[in-house]
Specification:
Number of helices: 11
Radius of gyration: 17 Å
Strand content: 15-25%
Shape: globular
Number of domains: 1
CATH class: Alpha Beta
Mean pLDDT: 91
CATH architecture: 3-Layer(aba) Sandwich
Low-confidence stretches: none
Helix content: 25-40%
CATH topology: Rossmann fold
Length: 255
């Protein structure tokens, strides 16, 4: 389904420095032209950034409310798989297919994709700063545009976090389960979805084949690990994830 209907900003509670925060504490001054990029280096890793992705989706719609009522577009965000396909994440609304891509595990190539997509808000797994030499001016191009960089963990909890995001609504987990165990809808279900007011990706003929193709390398053991990691984040059935901000001046040395 489309996050326009499925999720709401008030599903998420931000805690920063031990105090209640807001989406603006995570994505300061989000505007209508912001774009989220999520780097994925291992199987189903972006599940650890579920709430960050969903919060960015809400910022996308809140910045320009007519996207919910008139345009009804998918969020401008991109899942970037590094060095292989690490599972289909289309259920998080990384759709159409151009918004979920693969790039070689080469920092220069990764930075090139970030620049090509015009990423302004970056999520990447915890990675150390390294002595990476990028192509001339490519770093300046990215840093001129980047407003936020956040490190996540595939487990959902980073070391020494700067902030956490807690869901207070179980609906936020719906797409997590669909990423872990993608299932094809029946013809009857698709026919019903076609009649809904907001067009949804599940009715696209290439949606499920695309997700199955991206999941070709995902094993049952990987799925089970993802289930266990998600369960470990729950308190009374609700999930809390933690994150750490990455210094913009160093983040491109973490690719």
């Amino acid at each position: 389904m489309h996050v326009i209907d499925a999720l709401s900003t008030d599903f998420y509670e931000v805690e920063l420095a031990g105090a209640a925060g807001t989406a603006q504490d995570v994505f300061a001054q989000w505007n209508a032209h912001d774009r989220l990029g999520v780097l994925i280096y291992e199987p189903l890793a972006a599940l650890g950034a579920t709430h960050l992705i969903q919060l960015a989706c809400m910022c996308f719609y809140d910045a320009k409310p007519l996207r919910r009522t008139e345009r009804k577009v998918y969020p401008e965000m991109f899942a970037i798989h590094v060095g292989g396909w690490w599972g289909g994440h289309g259920n998080f609304d990384f759709w159409p297919p151009r918004r979920e891509v693969q790039v070689s595990n080469d920092p220069q190539a990764i930075l090139g994709v970030l620049n090509d997509f015009g990423i302004t808000r970056l999520a990447l797994p915890e990675r150390p700063v390294r002595d990476i030499v990028h192509r001339r001016k490519e770093e300046d191009c990215a840093l001129d545009r980047l407003a936020t960089a956040v490190m996540y963990s595939p487990t959902g909890r980073v070391a020494a976090p700067d902030f956490s995001i807690r869901s207070n609504n179980r609906r936020s987990e719906r797409d997590v389960q669909r990423v872990i165990n993608p299932t094809a809808l029946s013809e009857q279900s698709i026919a019903q979805l076609v009649q809904t007011a907001v067009p949804v990706k599940e009715t696209d003929a290439d949606f499920m084949p695309r997700q199955l193709a991206l999941n070709a390398g995902i094993t049952e053991a990987m799925r089970e690990q993802a289930v266990q990691q998600r369960a470990a984040l729950k308190v009374d059935g609700l999930v809390t994830e933690s994150y750490r901000f990455a210094e913009l001046g160093q983040v491109l040395k973490r690719l």
